């Protein structure tokens, strides 16, 4: 949903190629970066300057096909392939008039027939056979169904507004979440600074042993940062809940499996439970002395874990279980 | 001794008789893969026949590596080695049959990926890789076409032909490994001892490739690969990657600025780009491990990863080809029978008429009875 909304909001950039050349004044994109190539209704290209030179004074013939064109009819190309551009424009135009939806029909068959008719007219326009007839049919349809067209247009407008509102809301929520997060972090910083200051003043004035004072303050510090972190976590969960609510509200089918708890790091194996010491003395091993190993990611800690796990790994496997599994 | 050898042979024969080879699926440089099935359970399997060549250098190194690694591993996201048996001088690996791979999925432009799909693939891939690393095994050839996809959508790590154990600092390893586009910078700088972080770099490249639907760091040659990486990721400073100059072929790199990653990965969410950056960190010590990557908020944030069965799959063109091949073989057999009839006749005239046709169609010409 949000993808759709953002697509609605974002402007689609016009198509540009590095080797663009205006067929009229022959100026190239290489020399004239900001050049805008426009396309007229007859699908001949011209740069913006040429267009204003030729058409500022009123309608004039296209230099290629001599069709009479106006300045307002020129637009920026979006697709590289002009036949695609043409088809998109024709279909857009058709959709403005032929905007009936499936719910307007009693039977699916009628709707399909209607779609078939629309497609027939579109193809006539696309392949230039019987354009006049197609135009006539469009006009006739418009006259006969003007009330339905109007009604569906207002429906479409309403749908778009709803989507846009939902998108705005989502943006708003994201912003709020971010502000909340920043605020909590700032709080934590401030609290830390406070404790530090009071520690210094306590050390300066109190008669107690310095070690005891420091210890007490450290406990306090740990507690405060823990509480901030917890509240951070709870806000994260709340946001997730809100987002889930939003999805539900849209009527999208939520799977049961989606709401079940899951662990990204799920594994069929129990992790090997070995606690390594901080330091092992290994006087014969001088591999780490030269450096260069760590730059490739090999650390002393990893190497020691490898050795210890290698020595102890077999202790955690029960051979009987393995046999039972393989005989199955 | 003798009785032991005989027992071994018997077991080998018994294993071989459990499976039936059907048709050839594909051929690589060192192996031919056949489709087959387990006779009793009718389970589909892939039988990988290792070519031994002329036995000059003994058994292929990658065959040994593959058997050694797969015997150690059993995980839902790692291909299962069901059995091994020898036939005459060939070694046969009986592997789980998987019908497509991630490369096919990426290349099939008719498929549309949702962010949740990419998350699901990444999660399965990292689970499989994490298991390998927990067993102290490096895969060393991660790329989309080595991630096979089962019929139920499960992603499975396959092709352990370059896999080896890591962790021992005293044993040097080759830096000439991993397909170029997925090769980590420390390998390009000639490191002879490395860790799971080289696989994570490749995973990061695959993550980017899934988002872009195109290879992320496609260097044209081994020399250019490093430049491609530096250009895409920005040249690291000595602070970011301490000791990089001490690596065997470290040199003063051309300085490239860090680009805005979110510009290139517009379709990806913020947490996805963050995870990608952490998997593509230059300093291998700081690069996330597979286990840490799975703990990244990306996997817990919405959207939830897609259930494997619901992931997009390429259309089954492979099956059509197989069926066609089967039909071809069938036709050929019918011709063969007809020709055999004709050729069994001693009539010299008939033989002469038939032989050139048989040759043209690549049929066996039996000598007259």
TrEMBL record, chain A:
It is found in: Nucleus. It comes from the Eukaryota. The keyword Zinc applies. PROSITE patterns: ZF_RING_1 (PS00518), ZF_RING_2 (PS50089). GO terms for biological process: nucleotide-excision repair; regulation of transcription by RNA polymerase II. Residues 243-258 have a biased composition (Acidic residues). GO terms for cellular component: transcription factor TFIIH holo complex. GO terms for molecular function: cyclin-dependent protein serine/threonine kinase activator activity; zinc ion binding. Residues 22-66 form the RING-type domain. Keywords: Metal-binding, Nucleus, Zinc, Zinc-finger. Gene3D superfamilies: Zinc/RING finger domain, C3HC4 (zinc finger). Residues 243-268 are annotated as: Disordered. This is RNA polymerase II transcription factor B subunit 3. It comes from Coemansia spiralis.
From TrEMBL, chain B:
It is an enzyme of class 2 (transferase). One of its GO terms (molecular function) is ATP binding. GO terms for biological process: positive regulation of transcription elongation by RNA polymerase II. Residues 299-369 are annotated as: Disordered. Pfam families: Pkinase. The keyword RNA-binding does not apply. Residues 19-299 form the Protein kinase domain. It comes from the Eukaryota. ATP binds at residues 25-33, 48-49. The active site is at 141 (proton acceptor). Residues 347-363 have a biased composition (Basic and acidic residues). Gene3D superfamilies: Phosphorylase Kinase, domain 1, Transferase(Phosphotransferase) domain 1. The keyword Mitochondrion does not apply. Its EC number is 2.7.11.23. Keywords: ATP-binding, Kinase, Nucleotide-binding, Phosphoprotein, Serine/threonine-protein kinase, Transferase. GO terms for cellular component: cytoplasm; transcription factor TFIIK complex. Belongs to the protein kinase superfamily. CMGC Ser/Thr protein kinase family. CDC2/CDKX subfamily. This is [RNA-polymerase]-subunit kinase. It comes from Coemansia spiralis. The lineage of its organism: Eukaryota, Fungi, Fungi incertae sedis, Zoopagomycota, Kickxellomycotina. The gene is KIN28.
